[in-house]
Design brief:
Blueprint lengths: L1 E6 L6 H13 L5 E6 L2 H6 L2 E4 L5 H10 L3 H12 L3 E4 L1 H4 L4 E2 L5 E2 L6 E5 L11 E9 L12 E8 L1 E5 L5 E6 L3 E8 L2 E4 L7 H13 L3
Parallel strand pairs: 1-2, 1-3, 3-4, 4-13, 5-7
Antiparallel strand pairs: 5-6, 7-10, 8-9, 8-11, 11-12, 12-13
Helix pairs in contact: 1-6
Length: 214
């Protein structure tokens, strides 16, 4: 049975992410078990890892590091063993080198770059960026299999991840300026939007992640 570790570090939004992962898995062959956990041993042994996130970068980083052994387990599983990883919203942002929300806070530094406040060009584009937007896939990737070239996803955020290497941007979105809607590198991927709130398109992306074999 495939195990999916959904990391609990006090960031909230776990229940909706858990339900969406379970629902996405039901459409696939093979048994899957979603475990909400902060147990380093379970994380290290998981077949898939999902890091959600809601709120401020610094608070989420502090919450993650406060869970004994969790960051070490993530490093061992994701970067050591090559476990497929998906970061959602701030969970994606934590993959960056640093976040600039309120103060400079170090991230996991899995994909070089920084998280900084959105500065849209035009008064019509509000911050927080909240609502439905089409994402534009930059290059073919298994996460986006079966999705249209422009797929609507649900966003709610004020900060975005700007990778150092443009090749890390798997999909982009335009909100008074273009920025990363998704990043990917090797066995690691992250999405700025909330697939668990993005209806059929979001469920398809989660199902693709559960079937992904990087």
């Amino acid at each position: 049975m495939q195990s999916i570790a959904l990391i609990d570090y006090g960031s909230g939004n776990l229940r909706s992410a858990e339900k969406a992962l379970v629902k996405a898995g039901e459409a696939l062959d093979g048994a899957r078990r979603v475990v909400v956990t902060a147990d380093p041993d379970l994380i290290a042994r998981a077949d898939r890892i999902v890091l959600p996130g809601v709120g401020a970068f610094a608070a989420c980083a502090a919450g993650l590091h406060a869970r004994s052994g969790v960051t070490e387990a993530l490093e061992a599983a994701v970067r050591g063993r090559g476990t497929p990883f998906l970061g959602i919203c701030v969970g994606m942002q934590l993959m960056a080198s640093r976040g600039l929300e309120f103060r400079t806070t170090l991230g996991l530094d899995w994909i070089g770059g920084e998280v900084r406040r959105l500065t849209p060009d035009g008064a019509a584009f509000k911050v927080p960026h909240m609502g439905w937007n089409d994402i534009q896939v930059a290059a073919p990737h298994p996460l986006f299999e079966g999705l249209g070239a422009d797929s609507p996803m649900y966003f709610t955020h004020s900060f975005a991840f700007f990778p150092d290497d443009a090749a890390a941007v798997a999909a982009s979105v335009d909100h008074g300026g273009r920025f990363a809607a998704a990043v990917a590198h090797g066995n690691m991927a992250g999405v700025q939007f909330h697939p668990e709130k993005s209806q059929a398109a979001g469920l398809r992306l989660l199902a693709n992640f559960l079937d992904w074999r990087p």
